[in-house]
Amino acid sequence: MPIIKGLEWTFDTVAVQYEKLRPAYVAELYEDIFRYKQLDQTSHAMEVGIGGGQATLPILKTGCKVTAVEYGENFSQLCRRKFREFPGFSVVTSRFEDFAGESASCDLIYSASAFHWVPEEIGYPKVLDLLKSGGVFARFAGLWISVINFTTGRAVLRRKNIPPFWELIPIIW
């Protein structure tokens, strides 16, 4: 269940300011994700809650197709403009829980500071349904990163303390 139910729409009212003020994520984050899942031109990634697109560019630079599912119309329009140079990029304006995607179609599903808005009892089963066999789900927010490989049933939770220190905590999923 979302932490502050009913307020998720408020971010879209300040989409331009949010995009300018929200920091990007560190390169080590993407190195960790790419260690779990190699992406190339044949891959399909899905971003849940793209917001201002702070986590999107490193994924797009792999050459893969990226479909963003974003609840806010203003964020959707902003990111369509921001990533217009990438032909494999698209945005669907929808709540993730209402999105009707093709089963087993994604190599990577990731969410940066947004998945907490999705009800867990809907979000996690939907992620499992959308992932291909061997696919990976990466959920991260602020300083916390959780990379889940549903094939092996293992998750790694990492906490960035002082650059470049990372703490690994294996979690059975």
Could you list some keywords that capture this structure?
173 residues, alpha/beta, Rossmann fold, eight-stranded mixed beta sheet, 24% helix
Q: What is the mean predicted local confidence, pLDDT?
A: 81
The CATH architecture name reads 3-Layer(aba) Sandwich
Number of domains: 1
Helix-residue proportion? 10-25%
Question: Can you tell me the residue ranges where pLDDT is under 50 for at least 5 consecutive residues?
Answer: 157-173
Tell me the strand order in the biggest sheet: 3-2-1-4-5-6-7-8
- Shape, principal axes of CA atoms: globular
Oligomeric state of this protein:
single chain
Rg, please?
15 Å
Strands, count: 8
**Fourth-tier CATH superfamily name:** Vaccinia Virus protein VP39
Describe this structure in words.
The protein is an alpha/beta fold and 173 residues long. It has a single domain, classed as Rossmann fold (3-Layer(aba) Sandwich), CATH 3.40.50. The chain is built from 5 helices and 8 strands; from the N terminus they run H-H-E-H-E-H-E-E-H-E-E-E-E. The chain has helices at residues 15-21, 27-36, 57-60, 73-82, 120-130; strands spanning 44-48, 65-70, 89-93, 106-112, 131-141, 144-149, 154-160, 166-172. The protein is globular.
List the helices and strands and how they pair.
Layout: H1 15-21, H2 27-36, E1 44-48, H3 57-60, E2 65-70, H4 73-82, E3 89-93, E4 106-112, H5 120-130, E5 131-141, E6 144-149, E7 154-160, E8 166-172
